[in-house]
Amino acid sequence: MAARKSSKKSARKGTAKKSKTTKAKAAPKAAARKKAPGKKGTVKKTMPRAAAKRPAAKKSAKKSVKKTAKKAASRRAKAAPAPAAPAMPAWAWHEVMTNDVATAQAFYTHVFGWTARDSGMPGMTYTLFAKDGVDVGGCMALPEHEGQPACAPQWVAYVQVDDVDAAVERSTSKGGSVDMPAMDIPGVGRVCILRDPAGATFAVYRPQL
Fold first, then answer.
1. Which pLDDT score is estimated for 2?
2. Where are the beta strands (DSSP E) in the chain?
3. Do residue 65 and residue 15 come from a single domain?
4. What is the pTM of this model?
5. Sign (positive/negative) of CA torsion 185, 187, 190, 195?
6. Residue 85 falls within a domain, yes or no?
7. 95-112 core/surface letters (b: 16 or more CB in 10 A; e: else)
8. Considering Cα of 148, then 152, then 153, then 155, what sign does the dihedral take?
9. In terms of residue numbers, what domain contains 159?
10. How are beta strands 177-185 and 90-98 bridged, if at all?
């Protein structure tokens, strides 16, 4: 009986030792399992840092895009051709021809706020109208033809051409008429005042070279 009791006790002790060993071995695994949710927590903690880095990356990307766009615009501006000069024939000048220059000057300077000054052309009196220092038109006495006014008081628009005489010939060949024959004005150029078949007045002009 005594032998049986001792064997039972030793068996119990061995079982207890085994259970303790098993528990000791299982403890790290359990601890690891408990820490496992912490990994998710760790990911959650690092997420704000990653999110904080994203705006900085976006800003740098935007800056690089802007720089690239500026460089491209600068290259296009340099490569763009210079604006071409207006093709001729083109409207070049306007002037009023009148039988009372002084009254015309007083009228237009008052209505439009223009200034008036003598052009200094040799051999004739010609007034220049200007606004803010920029010439906008002219004023002159009515030209005469055989002692009579060549035309009625009016505003005349000038078209700049390469060849005044050729333009006059083309005009008359299509039913136009000459109001003031072509003439050279010193310091200005060659001018001719015409009428179209309906009677509207215009002038052709080539600047003195």
1. 44
2. 90-98, 115-118, 126-131, 134-141, 144-145, 148-149, 154-160, 177-185, 189-195, 201-207
3. yes
4. 0.54
5. negative
6. no
7. bbbbeebeebbeebbeee
8. negative
9. 90-207
10. unpaired
Phi-psi region of 39 (alpha: psi -120 to 50; beta: other; left: phi over 0): alpha
Phi and psi for 138 in degrees, rounded to 5? -135, 170
Pick out the chain residues at pLDDT < 50.
1-5, 38-39, 41-43
Long-range contacts of 192-198 (CB under 8 A, 24+ apart): 192/164, 192/165, 192/167, 192/168, 193/143, 193/150, 193/151, 193/156, 194/168, 196/171
Which amino acid appears at position 30 of this protein? A
Q: Are residues 70 and 16 in the same domain?
A: yes
Q: How far apart are CA 202 and CA 209, in angstroms?
A: 22
Pairing of strands 201-207, 154-160: parallel
Mark whether 107 and 194 lie in a shared domain.
Answer: yes
160's tokens:
């700049």
Q: Torsions phi, psi of 110, nearest 5? A: -75, -45
Domain count, the chain: 2
pLDDT tens by residue, 88-144: 678 889 999 999 999 999 999 999 999 999 988 877 889 999 999 999 999 999 877
Specify the amino acid at residue 23.
K
